[in-house]
Amino acid sequence: MKNTYLYENNKIIKKDYSLVICEKPEAARKIAEALSNNTYRTQKVTDSIVFNLNYKGKELVICSALGHLYKINLAKTQSKLPRFDYSWTPINKPKNKAVIINSKINLIKLLSKDAKEFILACDLDQEGETIGYNILKYACNEKQKIAKRVKFSTLTEKDIKNAFSNMEKHIDIDLAIAGRTRHVIDCMYGINISKALSLAFMSYSNKYRTLSIGRVQGPTIAYVVENDLQIETHVPLPFWSINAYIETTENGKTTWLKIKYKKEKIIEKKEANNIIKNCKGEKAIISKINKNNFKINPPVPFNLSELQKKAFKLYKLNPYQTLNIAEKLYLKALISYPRTASQKLPTSINYRKIISNLSKLPEFTRITNNLLKKKKLTPTQGKMSDNAHPSIYPTGKMTKFQLSNTEKKIFNLIVTRFLELFEKPIIGKINLIHFNIGKYIFLSSSKKIKKETNSKHNKENKKHVNFQIAEKFNVKRIRMEENFETAPRPFNQITLIEKMEKENVGTKSTRANIIQTIIDRAYIKGTKLKSTHLARALVEVLQIYSPLILSSEMTRKMEKQLEEIENRKTTQEKVLTISSKNLRLIIKEIQKNNILIGKKLFSATKNLVIQSTNNSLAKCTICKKGDLIITSNSRNRALICSNSVNESCIVKASLPRFGLIKIYKKSCMTCLWPKIKTVFKGNPWIFCINPDCPSKRKRKL
DNA sequence: GCAAGGTC
């Protein structure tokens, strides 16, 4: 039977209710549950669920948005750049989502007509206030002036009830204006500069190409470019470490034990030689034993980003793919809602039932049966929490559908992690033993696990030997090992997101999207993200004309201005006047140098050889076609094959910063790469330039 | 077309 207490024949039939506006459907449901002790009623109105209940004699109607329903638009009527005329309009994308968003706006418009009170219940942050302000202003006809505000930071019954008993009389208009200013600044800078770059490109090449830049894209591109330059100009300087082997007896058998010299990096070879010389003929004597306990807890529950990290590490699935797969698993009811930051599991979940259901999966039977023997099942909990959703866990439901290979992988990851949460921590002892050989200290550690568990998460179990202070050992061998400083690692999608987090640019819900955008623009590419020539040209250009947009400073400065708006120390108008003034200067300079900038960017989209070959030192020993040339910037220099520019040859290596470089007459015997000869600290130095040359891995001297 | 920010 159809329930028609709220809505009938396209009309709202209730009157004089309080309309509660939430940011997302999940929040509306949780509020209805909390305030009504689960006695709320629901009805579908224009495709959305609306909740109705009586709370302390008040008739509440609770509806929800879907994040932002309105966005900023720059007027296209303004033909000259920069464009400053803007307006707020409903979001309409030519996708299914637009339909939902339009119906959300229509729903709220409909519900607002007969409401006598408006209560804003969006998330408690700047964007939440902005989302609510815009809905109240545009969909509810200027009700931002009279709307009340409920403030809760978790969606628990206690917090929600508390918020409704201590309602604020007004929404925070200043915070909303600060949020709206953020939208305007991002739109103004992003669209105008992007457009100006695209036009510069066009003016030189007569071709259209979408070039984009923004407050978050800028620094993100710059991180990758900077990192790549560091990798390319990295100088693999050598350093030395020293190992000694002492004779020990164990169960009547004589074996050698490796002990390491305390200083792990010796910069001067002379120093290493000296130590070895001085140790000759000496015995190793135990001078100190540090005894410590250790405890390794099981891992914490998966939130989305930890799941994405694990999936990338194990299967090279990028964060996007993992989210897509997790969403499919969620729709098949195999796992809980995946878009969550939480690392906690609520006690209301029946762990035993889920585990016993999972035991039907043959690959998990052994672990589940062991867990089911336990009297009490208590999972570990992580630190992070999320208002709306718990961490990701398997529901214990089985599917009749066949899972794809990758779906199966992600599902198994989630199950494995869930089962690990109930394992016991691993407890043990670790001893750090100090040996004196002459006046030098060498170290060795040993670990003993106290309780054996069936857990997989610790495999180290070094044999524990009972050593005594002042015990003496023969030193059978002592030698040094040559190592090379390694270059910084290239970014991947996970580490780039981490870098953005660390620098505080973007938000958790936009970072992955923005990385995808700069991949789509051909600024970065590959699993190991590498900057393209286009990105490098773009960074060079912007460093001259708009360095601020390449730096996380722009976010810092903007946040400071927004805070001042929020605290009424300044106004939106003042901030926007300053911003538009700066922007006008930037656009003017870009336009003045249109052709130059266009040429630079256009050339970078072609695989042009950037170096002329008349400074060739020799023919490349690998591809036999290209010329070996030296490239340099202010700080570093590198030797490259001219064919490495279009990636048809791999020869590319950093060079020492100082000294004359000559190509050595013979190439490397191991890898065939060119060798060079230079003078290093007064001595001639001949070495293979290949940073990955097998001969460099662990050369024993 | 172009940004960044919500949420599905």
Q: What can be said about this structure in brief?
A:
This protein is α+β, with helices and mostly antiparallel strands. It contains 18 helices and 27 strands. The protein has 5 domains: 7-171, Rossmann fold (3-Layer(aba) Sandwich); 180-233 and 491-605, Topoisomerase I, domain 2; 238-298 and 427-484, Topoisomerase I, domain 3 (Distorted Sandwich); 305-420, Topoisomerase I, domain 4 (Orthogonal Bundle); 613-700, no CATH class.
Walk me through this protein's architecture:
This protein is an alpha+beta fold. It folds into five domains: 7-171, 3-Layer(aba) Sandwich (Rossmann fold); 180-233 and 491-605, Topoisomerase I, domain 2; 238-298 and 427-484, Topoisomerase I, domain 3 (Distorted Sandwich), CATH 2.70.20.10; 305-420, Topoisomerase I, domain 4 (Orthogonal Bundle), CATH 1.10.290.10; 613-700, no CATH class. It is 36% helix and 22% strand. α1 (25-36) crosses α4 (157-165) and α10 (351-358) packs antiparallel against α11 (365-372). It binds one DNA strand of 8 nucleotides through residues 23-25, 65-69, 71-72, 74, 91, 96-97, 100, 123, 127-128, 130-131, 179, 182-183, 185-198, 208, 210-217, 327, 339, 506-507, 509-510, 513-514, 517.
Question: Secondary-structure map with pairings?
Answer:
Blueprint (H helix, E strand, L loop, with lengths): L6 E2 L2 E2 L4 E6 L2 H12 L4 E5 L2 E8 L2 E7 L5 E5 L11 E5 L5 H18 L1 E7 L4 H14 L8 E2 L7 H9 L7 H33 L11 H16 L5 E13 L2 E9 L7 H11 L4 E13 L7 H12 L3 H13 L19 H8 L6 H8 L32 H16 L5 E12 L2 E10 L22 E2 L1 E10 L8 H11 L7 H10 L3 E2 L4 E2 L1 H13 L7 H14 L5 H21 L1 H12 L12 E2 L7 E6 L4 E5 L10 E4 L6 E2 L11 E6 L2 E6 L10 E2 L1
Parallel strand pairs: 3-6, 3-9, 9-10
Antiparallel strand pairs: 1-2, 4-5, 5-6, 7-8, 11-12, 11-17, 12-15, 13-14, 13-16, 14-15, 17-27, 18-19, 20-21, 21-22, 22-23, 24-25, 25-26
Helix pairs in contact: 1-4, 3-5, 5-16, 5-17, 5-18, 8-9, 8-12, 9-12, 10-11, 15-18
The protein binds one DNA strand of 8 nucleotides through β7, α2, α3, α5 and α14.
